[in-house]
């Protein structure tokens, strides 16, 4: 099912609410959202939890607000200000040039307060305990990074500065479409660094995960949560192959399918009644199981 996550909750807390409302412990989520973020969070229930790892690898879309002129410890509005160069005289042309350098295939250093584990401990936990964390750059793809609106403002300077110090900032409403593993907070940080102003994220809303959008997202405050059957989801999210009864029986016990051409690298296979059985991948001229969902 698809939930519209409210601000202030962790993804794990959303899972906890869903467990209580659905009366089952077997609920998981695909793709973590920070507590300040809102929007599309895909949950799996029952055996569909095993499908979440594959669904989390798909592309995502966001709407966000980036403040240029200030950098923060966490690359978002929840962290303390670490630098405040301001954004006076920042031209739109320079912003567009910096954006262009952050599109396409790039090497991105994740935010230090990400959920990536360092020595078995979440990076954000290390940062919050006062440790310095350096994460390795990772290849990601940013297919869209576009300014939708700009607002220039003057705000009070960082903590410790005289209260009458005025700091010019620029707030950019942006649209982002990117591969899994891309950190929008890191895009805000890197945009600010490229412009010499510093930058951080002040708002984030995920509008799409693969084929799932806000249009179908449910509020946790509703009377009942609607769960979509796993066969419908599998056919929607993966190329499909319908099998005859003999090959469906082989799939149920995880056998290789000899001389079976799949329509894509990872394919959902179904029995003659349309029931989702497994995900299979090519292996030479054959197909082999990636994950079997029925016995």
Automatic annotation (TrEMBL):
It is an enzyme of class 5 (isomerase). It comes from the Bacteria. Its EC number is 5.4.99.25. Residues 19-184 form the Pseudouridine synthase II N-terminal domain. Pfam families: TruB_C, TruB_C_2, TruB_N. InterPro entries: PsdUridine_synth_cat_dom_sf (IPR020103), PsdUridine_synth_N (IPR002501), PUA-like_sf (IPR015947), PUA_sf (IPR036974), tRNA_psdUridine_synth_fam2_C (IPR015225), tRNA_psdUridine_synth_TruB (IPR014780), TruB_C (IPR032819). The active site is at residue 34. Residues 238-293 form the tRNA pseudouridine synthase II TruB subfamily 2 C-terminal domain. Keywords: Isomerase, tRNA processing. It catalyses: uridine(55) in tRNA = pseudouridine(55) in tRNA. Residues 185-216 form the tRNA pseudouridylate synthase B C-terminal domain. PANTHER family: PSEUDOURIDYLATE SYNTHASE TRUB1, TRNA-PSEUDOURIDINE SYNTHASE. Responsible for synthesis of pseudouridine from uracil-55 in the psi GC loop of transfer RNAs. Belongs to the pseudouridine synthase TruB family. Type 1 subfamily. This is tRNA pseudouridine synthase B.
């Amino acid at each position: 099912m698809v939930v519209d996550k409210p601000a202030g909750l962790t993804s794990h807390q959303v899972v906890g609410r869903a467990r209580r409302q659905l009366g089952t412990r077997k609920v998981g989520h695909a793709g973590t959202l920070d507590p300040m973020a809102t929007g599309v969070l895909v949950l799996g229930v029952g055996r569909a939890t095993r499908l979440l790892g594959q669904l989390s690898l798909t592309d995502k879309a966001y709407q966000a607000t980036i403040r240029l002129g200030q950098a923060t410890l966490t690359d978002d509005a929840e962290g303390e200000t670490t630098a405040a160069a301001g954004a006076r005289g920042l031209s739109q042309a320079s912003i567009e040039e910096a954006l262009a350098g952050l599109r396409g295939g790039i090497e991105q250093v994740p935010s230090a307060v990400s959920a990536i584990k360092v020595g078995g401990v979440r990076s954000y936990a290390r940062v919050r305990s006062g440790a310095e964390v350096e994460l390795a750059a990772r290849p990601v793809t940013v297919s869209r990074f576009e300014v939708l609106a700009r607002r220039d403002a003057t705000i009070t300077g960082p903590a410790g500065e005289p209260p009458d110090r005025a700091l010019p900032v620029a707030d950019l409403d942006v649209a982002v479409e990117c591969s899994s593993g891309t950190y929008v907070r890191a895009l805000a940080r890197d945009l600010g660094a490229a412009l010499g102003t510093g930058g951080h994220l002040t708002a984030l809303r995920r509008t799409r995960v693969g084929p799932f959008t806000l249009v179908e997202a449910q509020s946790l405050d509703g009377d009942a949560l609607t769960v979509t059957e796993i066969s419908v989801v599998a056919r929607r999210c993966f190329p499909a192959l319908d099998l005859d009864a003999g090959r469906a029986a082989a799939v149920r016990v995880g056998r290789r399918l000899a001389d079976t051409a799949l329509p894509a690298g990872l394919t959902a296979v179904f029995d003659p009644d349309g029931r989702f059985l497994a995900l299979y991948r090519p292996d030479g001229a054959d197909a082999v199981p990636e994950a079997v969902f029925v016995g």
